[in-house]
Write a structure and sequence with these properties.
Layout lengths: L13 H5 L16 H10 L5 H12 L13 H11 L5 E8 L4 E7 L5 E8 L4 E4 L3 E3 L8 H4 L2 E4 L2 H16 L12 E4 L9 H12 L13 E5 L3 H10 L4 E5 L5 H7 L8 H15 L3 E7 L7 H12 L7 E7 L13 H13 L4 E3 L26 E4 L8
Parallel strand pairs: 1-13, 4-7, 7-8, 8-9, 9-10, 10-11, 11-12
Antiparallel strand pairs: 1-2, 2-3, 3-4, 5-6
The structure holds iron/sulfur cluster.
């Protein structure tokens, strides 16, 4: 493995990147516990073991968060159970809608004041929730809004899963635009580097995919975990045997440029990252998504498309990797802009000529800073109470 020893002065060290951040841990929540631990928790409250299944059924299956509705539990125990086992963790402080109401971005205030964001996107045949795994991010990619504020702390499993439960609840109640529905896809592509918060993210994956009532019962094939290339953690994820899709944010096919765009490359170079991605594809049978933000005159030259294609093709020719091109989304203060249309088209053509599957991602959520690389959890002065705003479409239905 081509693990490098470090980077130039000023680059984050691998210890800094892997650190969970300085914040305190949030209160323990039902969603932090494995099923056996839930039984222990209700017993510790003096309740019989079967109450655990009832609580999980209300939380994950019926998506009922009001203890008054838990009518099969003793009335005098409901509030106590909610207070001890299901403390509030995520307070919605702002909701913005775009794309005629089919994209809704929610800003959450956590128990310690940290802000994170999630985005609910409805399509014809699926509904995707894009979730955050960290408050801020320690990687510091210069084109990304999240990276500019640094890492505040890792999220707990419950804070991660809670973003999906909220979306599932909105859909189940029919209060999300488009009427009743279910969450079919979850992408760990919001704020943070998911694999820097590995154990919480893996526990969240298990809880999202665990059958009801102990989890949300979402197919692992509907889950995508992204990374900028934390190679040891990519291999750990592969070894964990959960058939999620891996999305690798590559953004450059040559180490010289990637060292600048993705500072983690100074620790794990492109060969190491692509070798780990290839192993994940081979082991899981899931095609890896190679994410590539197209930046005008920086990484969008045709020769870079050819180089990217060669580096993918030399590892396997069964379409193990799919390239997802992302027009750069504008972020405040950034010196970079999206590629010209003709350069984007040429990039696509050159990849396709080598037989590499390629698509250009739509710009869902761009007006509300909900698109890739734009999540930065800036809540305006009206953020003290839940603020709802619609941009370029119907009002938020939540
Ligand atoms: S692109 Fe991803 S890894 Fe890089 S700074 Fe942004 S959130 Fe962090």
């Amino acid at each position: 493995m081509n693990q490098r020893t470090g980077g130039p002065a000023g680059a984050p060290t691998i210890e800094q990147i892997m650190s969970p951040g300085p914040g305190r841990r949030p209160p323990r929540h039902w969603m932090d516990l494995a099923p056996a631990e839930r039984v222990d928790a209700v017993r510790a409250m003096g309740l019989p073991a079967f109450r655990a299944r009832q609580i999980s059924t209300h939380w994950f299956t019926r998506l009922e968060d009001d203890p008054a509705g838990w009518t099969d539990l003793p009335a005098d125990a409901r509030e106590r159970i909610a207070g001890i086992l299901l403390p509030p963790l995520l307070e919605p402080v702002q909701e913005l809608a775009a794309d005629h109401g089919t994209t809704v971005k929610t800003a959450w205030r956590l128990y310690d004041g940290c802000l994170v964001e999630s985005v609910l996107m409805r399509y014809l045949h699926r509904t995707t929730v894009c979730i955050s795994s960290e408050a801020g991010c320690g990687i510091g990619c210069p084109f990304c809004a999240t990276g500019q504020g640094g890492l505040q702390r890792n999220l707990s499993t419950a804070e991660i899963v809670g973003q999906v439960v909220h979306g599932a609840r909105l859909l189940a109640r029919g209060s999300a635009p488009g009427g009743p529905g279910r969450v079919t896809n979850v992408v760990f592509m919001g704020m943070g580097e998911p694999l820097a918060n590995f154990s919480a993210v893996l526990a969240a994956v298990r809880e999202l995919t665990r059958p009801e009532p102990d989890g949300l019962g979402i197919s692992a094939r509907g889950l995508t975990v992204s990374t900028v290339g934390m190679v040891p953690r990519m291999r750990q994820l592969t070894g964990a045997g959960v058939p999620v899709t891996l999305a690798v944010s590559l953004h450059a096919p040559d180490d010289e440029l990637r060292d600048e765009l993705v500072p983690l490359n100074r620790h794990f170079d492109i060969d190491a990252v692509l070798d780990a991605a290839w192993d994940h594809a081979r082991t899981s049978g899931r095609r890896v998504s190679i994410e590539y933000v197209l930046i005008k005159d920086v990484n969008d030259q045709a020769w870079r498309a050819d180089l990217l294609a060669r580096r993918l093709a030399e590892r396997g020719d069964w379409n193990w990797a799919h390239v997802n091109l992302i027009p750069l989304n504008p972020t405040p203060g950034s010196r970079w802009t999206a590629s010209r249309r003709e350069d984007e088209e040429a990039f696509v053509r050159h990849l396709a000529r080598h037989g590499i599957p390629v698509t250009v991602r739509d710009t869902r959520g761009r007006e509300i800073d909900g698109a890739c690389g734009q999540l930065a959890a800036r809540v305006g002065a009206d953020g003290g109470d839940l603020a709802r705003r619609a941009v370029g479409g119907a009002p938020a239905g939540a």
